[in-house]
């Protein structure tokens, strides 16, 4: 049973100090929220944050070591999809059933993992199209304002919702709360399932995918995802997914996708949680998705 006492001033813990995590910490600082970044090794390091209007702000974010976190009510995980479970396993001794967990990453498949690990905790899934870039450990640049979509993954007490939603809504605005967040997560998944592997495989900036020679691949990938989504009850037209992809290609034309960067810097990619998630759902539903399957194999070879 979840605690019904509304949390008026929740203590926030943000895992890591990646670009989006750093931006959330900066917003917490500006809003006067009680927050800490959970990091591997304790260090108080000053950061210069350049906001979207070009104004620089100096701050020393609050940090504590992940092995010994300060108390928290709400745990935000702006990490890679494959880091979610290991982080929660590490934090398990400090997580009480009433603590709220918020997932914020590319890809899908972690909700199922978290539910097994922490079956009773209130869980929020979120996706954002905010842009942030960390040229080095001491600098953070806000590169784009984007919409954030959020939703609870189980029935939670109304008082809890009413106390938490306005607090989170201010972190990455504008934000929209969904009754069923899965549709928003699938739509974002389709964007990542096209842009991330294609830019990584062909070594491109996002904007280069606007070239006509990629349009058949883009349609094929979206057709398969639309079939899987529709079979799951999220009726969507493939053309709508293609249009969303094209909008992001244009809006982020000058950026390299996260998967492009992961391959470039020889890091693990999130392919298992992006096209890999599409293929595993398709297998369960007996739907053929050869284009997504091929992208998984090609990225695996590059990894
Ligand atoms: O989320 C992204 C990523 O790079 O992971 C997109 C939307 C593709 C922007 O680059």
TrEMBL record:
NCBIfam families reported for this sequence: apbA_panE
Organism: Paraglaciecola arctica BSs20135
Highest taxon above the source species: Bacteria
InterPro entries: 6-PGluconate_DH-like_C_sf (IPR008927), 6PGD_dom2 (IPR013328), ApbA (IPR003710), Ketopantoate_reductase (IPR050838), KPA_reductase (IPR013752), KPR_N (IPR013332), NAD(P)-bd_dom_sf (IPR036291)
GO biological process: pantothenate biosynthetic process
EC number of the protein: 1.1.1.169
Sequence ranges assigned to domain Ketopantoate reductase N-terminal in this UniProt record: 13-152
Pathway in which this enzyme or protein is active: Cofactor biosynthesis; (R)-pantothenate biosynthesis; (R)-pantoate from 3-methyl-2-oxobutanoate: step 2/2
Any Gene Ontology CC annotation: cytoplasm
Similarity annotation: Belongs to the ketopantoate reductase family.
Protein name in the entry: 2-dehydropantoate 2-reductase
Xref: SUPFAM superfamilies: 6-phosphogluconate dehydrogenase C-terminal domain-like, NAD(P)-binding Rossmann-fold domains
Cited function: Catalyzes the NADPH-dependent reduction of ketopantoate into pantoic acid.
